[in-house]
Amino acid sequence: MLLKKLTEASGVSGHEREVRNIIIDEIKDYVDDLKVDKLGNLIVFKKGKENPKKLMITAHMDEVGLMVIDIDDKGYIKFTTVGGIDKRILISKPVLIGDKKVPGVIGSKPMHLQKKEERDRAIEIDSLYIDIGVDSKEEALKFVNIGDYISFDSKYTEFGDNLIKAKALDNRVGCSLLIELIKEIEDVSFYGVFTVMEEIGLKGAGPAAYNVDPDICIVLEGTLCYDVPQIDTHLIPTRLNNGPAISLIDRTTIFNKTLREKIAEIARSNGIPYQYRKSSMGGNDSGKIHVTKEGSITATISVPCRNIHSPTSVMSKKDYENTLRLLKAILNEYKKGEFISGIQ
Amino acid sequence: MNIKRGNLLVEFNSKLLKELVTTYGPSGNETNICNYIKEQIKNYVDEITVDNLGNLIARKKGNGKKIMIAAHMDQIGLMITDIDENGFLRFTNIGGVSPFVSLNQHVIFENGVLGIIAMEPMDDISKLKLSNLFIDIGVKNKKEAESLVNIGDVCVYLPHYNENENTVFTSALDDRIGCYVAIETIKNIKNYKNDLYFVFTVQEEVGLRGAKTSAYKINPDICIALDVTGSGDTPKAKTFAVGLHKGTAIKVKDNSILTHPKLRNIMINVAKENNIAYQLEVLEYGGTDSGAVHLTREGVPSGVISIPTRYVHSTTEMVSKKDVLDSIKLLVKLLENDLDI
Is the pLDDT of residue B129 over 80? Predict the structure, then answer.
C-alpha cells in the first residue's frame, strides 16, 4: 500500500532521496515532464487541457527527525533535532540511523534513579542518548557517523474504525494524495511539486515556485488535530473524520478568500464534508510560494493528523478519501476554464 | 487642495484622511480600501494596475529611474475562527494585536456588523491572551450569528476620527497616513524627474508580503516607503529621539532595514535646502515595506519617510498635522530631485 511504503521510508529534511525515489517510481509513467531541481525538489508536469491560470499542487516530502552530533567513548550517540520535535516524546523510542538504517533506542536515566525534580520536568535532549548496542566509540563508528540522519522507527498500522497510525504522516499523506492525483487525472494541465526541507523553514518551496511561477497553488498537508473532549471548541484546530481542513490563516499566509470560498463551494456542491483549520499557528510552503516573483494565490487543504510530529501520528482513512474526492472535484472545475474571478 | 509652488504650502485635507481611516481594509481583505484609493488618484496617474496579491500600482510616467513609493493600505484586524452555540465569536489576530488594547473595544465587519470584545472571567488579568477574549455581536444564538458572520471573516476596530488644531487621533493611521501622504503627493507633484510607481501595498502588517511581490514586478532602481513610526515623547517612554510636531522623520534603521546612506543623505539635504523640519529615526524594533523591497532581485537602494505616531496599533493612534504636511513636502521635493546615488 502506497501510504505504508511512503511513511516507512526515511526522509528527514535535507535527506529526502529515499522518499523521492519511491515517488518517482510511482509517477514516472504518468507525467509528461519530470525533473529534480538543484535543492532536490521533484517537479512534474501533466499535460492536458490548458487553463490560462497556471496551477501548481505541492506536498513536502520531508519529515521531522534527528541528526547525530557526537559519539561518546562508550559508543552512545548524541543527537540534535531537525524540525519541530517535542522533546517529551523522545524517550524510549526506537530509531533508525543513517542510510544503513542502523537500529537504536533513545535512552535516558531510569525513573528509579531520577530525583523528584528531574521526574517533574521533561528531560533535556542533552541528557538523552541513542544506544545502538555497542560498547565503544570505535565500534559505533563502524555503523554510524557524525551528521547521519536519524528517523523514528515506526510501522504503519491500521486500527480502530478506519484509522491509521504511522510516523511522518506530515507530510507523506500529502505526497500520497498528490501521487494519486497525478495517476488518475488525465485531461488537464497542472504542475505537481514535491518539495524538500519544509520542516526546517520552507526552504525548498521558494525555489520551486520561482521555477514554476504559478498563478494558483494548492498546498497539500497533514495538519494538527487536537479534538479531545475536555477543551473549548474554539481551541480545537481540526477534528478527525470531519473531512479535509481548509486553512484560513497561519503564521506565513493569509489564504486567498476567493480561492478558499471556491474550494468550500466545490465541496458543498459535491457533498464532500469539510472543515476550516481553526488555528493560526504553524506555517507551510504556501508562505514562500505566494510571495515568490509577482505573487500567486494559494490555498492549503490538509488531512487532520493527531499526534503530529511524533512516531505515532494518527489519521482517518475517511478524511483521506474525502480529501482526494475534493481534489478531483477541484481539478474537474479547474478544467472548465475560468476557475476563479478576481485574480489579475 | 492646492499647493502653492515655491513655498509648498499644503492645507490639511481632513476629509480625505477621515475617509481613508474609516474605509475597511485589514490585511488580506484590501479590496474596499484599494477601490477607494483608486478613485482618488485615477485622474492624476498614467497607469493603474492591481496585481495577484492585490497591490495597487499607480504609475506617473517619466523618463528617468524607476522610483517605487510604497505605502501599505492594509490595517491590523481580527479573524473569526469559531462561533459557539450561543453566537459568541472567537478570533485570531491579523498583525500585531494586543489583548489589552482590544478589551472592550468596538469592532466592525466588512458588511457593517458591529460587535464588542469582551473577556472570560480571569483571576489574573495580566495573563490575558487573545484566546480569553470573544466578540459579542448581540445575537441570541449560533444560527443568528451565522446569518451575519462566517468563519474566516475579518473585523477591525471601529474607527472614530477626531482632530484638533494640531493633531489627528483615530485608529488605522498605520498606515492610512502613509497612503494620505502618497495620494496628496500624486495629486500635487508637477516637475518630477523620474518614472514614478506609487504602490499601495497589501499585507504589510503580517510580514511585508505585498511589498515583496510588487517590487519584483516593478524592479525599481530606488524605493521610498511611507509609514508610521513610534514616538519617544510620552511620559516615561523608552528612549527614542522622535516626537510629534518636530517634523517628518527620515529613517536610519529599524529591524527590517538599514536605509541606504546616499539616499538618506539626499533626503536630509533636500529637507535642509527646502526648510522642511525633519528628525532622524533610529528605531530599535519593527519594520516596513522597504525591508522587503531592498532585498528584492539584485537589491534596491531604499529609504523611508516616517510619520511620528503615538499609540501605534491601538484604537487611537495620534499624528501631528504639521509632521504630515512636512512629510508630503519632503516627498514632493525628493521626487523633483534627480536622486543620483
Answer: yes
Q: What is the pLDDT of residues A47-64, one digit of tens each?
A: 999 999 999 999 999 999
Distance from CA of A293 to the nearest CA of B (A): 6
* B2 pLDDT higher than 60: no
Residue B5 pLDDT exceeds 50:
no
Instruction: Say what the pLDDT of residue A341 is.
Output: 65
Same domain, B8 and B145: no
Where among A129, A152, A175 does a domain terminate? A152
Query: Do B81 and B71 reside in the same domain of the chain?
Result: no
Nearest to B306 by CA among B230, B228, B240, B241: B228
**Facing residue for A276 by CB, picked from B53, B151, B209:** B151
Q: How far apart are CA A248 and CA B315, in angstroms?
A: 25
Q: Please name the residue that has the C-alpha cell 537589491.
A: B299
Chain B CB within 8 Å of residue A293 CB: yes
Half-sphere exposure of A34 (CA within 13 A, CB side): 14
| pLDDT < 70 positions in chain A | 341-344
Q: A335 Cβ partners below 8 Å, 6+ apart?
A: A48, A49, A51, A187, A188
The per-residue pLDDT for range B194-226, each reduced to its tens digit, is 999 999 999 999 999 999 999 999 999 999 999
Same domain, A181 and A252: yes
What's the pLDDT at B3?
A: 43
Which candidate from B27, B29, B52 shows the least CB-CB separation from A295? B52
Query: Which stretches of chain B sit within 8 Å of chain A by CB?
Result: 27-29, 49-53, 79, 81-82, 84, 90, 92-94, 131, 151-152, 203, 206-207, 209-210, 212-214, 216-217
> Are the Cβ atoms of A344 and B90 closer than 8 angstroms?
no
pLDDT at A121: 82
Q: Are B19 and B128 members of one domain?
A: no
Q: Do B81 and A278 touch (CB under 8 A)?
A: yes
Please, which residues have CB within 8 angstroms of residue B255's CB and are 6 or more apart in sequence?
B283, B284, B285, B286, B287, B291
The answer to whether residues B331 and B242 belong to one domain is yes
| pLDDT, mean of residues B287-301 | 97
Is there a domain that residue B166 lies in?
no
Residue B32 burial class via C-beta count within 10 angstroms: exposed 0-12, middle 13-18, buried 19 and up: middle
CATH number of the CATH domain containing A246? 3.40.630.10
B198 shares its domain with B328? yes
Report helix, strand or coil for B303: strand
- ipTM given for this complex: 0.90
Boundary-marking domain end, from A107, A129, A152 = A152
Which residues of B does the annotation mark as catalytic? Answer: 204
For chains A and B, count residue pairs whose Cβ atoms are closer than 8 Å. 72
The residue segments making up the domain with residue A322 are 2-63+167-335
Q: Report the CATH number at residue B141.
A: 2.40.30.40
Q: How many CB atoms lie within 10 A of CB A196?
A: 28
**C-alpha cell of B51?**
496585481
pLDDT for A340 equals 76
Chain-centre distance for alpha carbon A225: 14
Query: Do B41 and B82 lie in a common domain?
Result: no
Q: pLDDT tens-digit profile of B9-40? A: 468 999 999 999 999 999 999 999 999 999 99
CA-based nearest distance B147→chain A, Å: 16
Both A206 and A282 in one domain: the answer is yes
Structure confidence at residue A343 (pLDDT):
53
**Do residues B13 and B31 both lie within one domain?**
yes
Q: Which of B116, B134, B157 is at the close of a domain?
A: B157
Q: H or E segment at B145?
A: helix B142-146
Q: Rounded to the nearest 10 degrees, what angle do helices A169-184 and A317-335 cross at?
A: 40
Range of the domain at B220: 3-75+171-335
